[in-house]
Amino acid sequence: MAVLRPYGTQADPTDGRAVLVHITEGCRKIGRARHEDRAPHLRPLIGELTPEEQWTIAAALPVLARPAELGMRARQ
Residue 66 — φ and ψ, nearest 5°? Predict the structure, then answer.
């Protein structure tokens, strides 16, 4: 029986000791479905936050994305 994994791997072409890991298209679909399920529940809750609280969250998003950006740069 085949094992279905949410990720795939391949050898790093620049470093034979390393392995590159990526999520599969099936896993991406699951992520999108979960987002589509959560978003309608979160929107009304976010709407109950004060404008200042909403602004604080929006202002933090670039900083929260930064580790992923740094990781991608390190792999290039």
Answer: -60, -45
Contact partners, residue 21, CB within 8 Å, separation at least 6: 7, 8, 9
User: Are 12 and 18 spatial neighbours (Cβ–Cβ below 8 Å)?
Assistant: yes
CA pair distance 7, 25, nearest whole angstrom: 9
pLDDT by 10s per residue, the chain, length 76: 556 678 888 898 998 899 988 888 888 898 899 999 999 999 999 999 999 999 999 999 999 988 888 887 877 7
- Prediction pTM value: 0.49
